[in-house]
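I'm stuck. Protein, please.
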Amino acid sequence: MPPGMGMMSSIGTDTIYSFVIIFVSLMIFRATKELYDLSQHKGIKFFCFAFLFFAFAYAFRFLTQFIVLFLGHPRSLGTDPGAISSITSLFFFMYASTAAIFYLWASNHWRWFERPSATLLLHICAFAISFLGIVTQNAILLGTVQVILIATLALTSYQKNNRDAQKLRFLYVLLAIFWALNLIDLLLPKFLSQIQLIIYLASISLFLVLLQKVIKKT
């Protein structure tokens, strides 16, 4: 396949992938917001906003891929407008997706976030992690941070309650894992090129499963 055709194919795949995730995330957000409006349950509120941030994250992911693949600007720090735009969109993808993972975690521990300042702390941590990732662009450091976040989500989300809740929290952990893979795919595109389509299909399937569970509950 000629290089130009390969690039257009990659952009087309990323476009479909990003917009499917955005659409499903917004559907989950809308359904759970209606449920929160009725119940005023803080855990549902955090779950709801997690998927709003996922929608934002994948919008910025698409923008990053468009700037890098179609316009040809690098993902590295630079002073030219192209580099600034690509690194800015990458930062907002990292921030929004990290905040989404934090909100999923908070949905299980909503009693810890009665004060608005506690929620603000989640955003400060997401901002700090994203800023660190952009400034260092160190794959090992970012990988370590991702493993810590995923392990924390997995270990603190497990509770001895009904099986359905445990399955849902297991899906949270899978979401965190695919978030990490998507971030690696953006920063090191050649590293996961052989399994990129599998990651895309698995991520879409995971979001669709969550959407089905939300629709069933509402």
Summary: Helices lie at 3-39, 42-70, 81-108, 116-136, 139-157, 163-187, 196-217. Confidence is low (pLDDT under 50) at residues 1-5. The chain has seven helices and no strands.
